[in-house]
Amino acid sequence: MSDSGLRILGLDPGLRNTGWGLIAARGNRLSHLAHGVVSSDAETDLAARLCQLHRGLAQVIVEHSPDEAAVEETFVNRNPASTLKLGQARGAVLLAPALAGLPVAEYGANHVKKSVVGAGHADKRQIRAMVALLLPGAKVGNADAADALAVAICHAHHATRAGGFIAQAS
Q1: Torsion of CA 63, 64, 68, 72, to 10 degrees
Q2: Which residues are catalytic?
Q3: What whole-number distance in Å separates Cα of residue 89 and Cα of residue 47?
Q4: Is residue 114 pLDDT above 80, yes or no?
């Protein structure tokens, strides 16, 4: 943990674009540190795309030195092939912080929305608005990065209510 607080990396997995957002949590104060998107090349095969996601996230972890990570769980949609590909991307996303030795928490999409917006079925616009409100100064134009910041905020809120962060419990 740095002087600015516990550095939490939120991750919103996707095969095409994986959003990431880094916040600092000190007590109940949250601050925005960085955010972005790691993209894979849709013209390459699945294995290459998963490698691109993993390498990109590993670089984010090296550059920003988070203390913990939180990942949004995969939702099941109507297309089984899409759900399977998303699950594979999520595996690559989970692997990056795990290999870096970070504690990794997982949260369902509705849990993240309820934690950040107050409603489990909030839309992307509502999430982006609440992220901007909770992290003043954060200029987040990308929905994937906003979702990742929401995952990090959810983790900060959840860990505080649970009596401490993952890093403090281990």
Answers
A1: -90
A2: 12, 72, 144
A3: 10
A4: yes
Looking at residue 162, its pLDDT comes to 53
pLDDT at 140: 87
Q: Which CATH number belongs to the domain containing residue 87 in this structure?
A: 3.30.420.10
In a domain, 143, yes or no: yes
What is the domain extent for residue 96? Answer: 6-163
22 in Cβ contact with 97 (< 8 Å)? no
Q: Residues 130-158: pLDDT tens digits?
A: 999 999 888 888 899 999 999 999 999 98
The count of structural domains within the chain is 1
User: What is each CA distance from 22 to 27, 34, 82, 134, 145, in whole angstroms?
Assistant: 16, 5, 27, 13, 10
In this structure, are residues 150 and 127 in contact, taking their beta carbons and an 8 Å threshold?
A: yes
pTM, entire model: 0.91
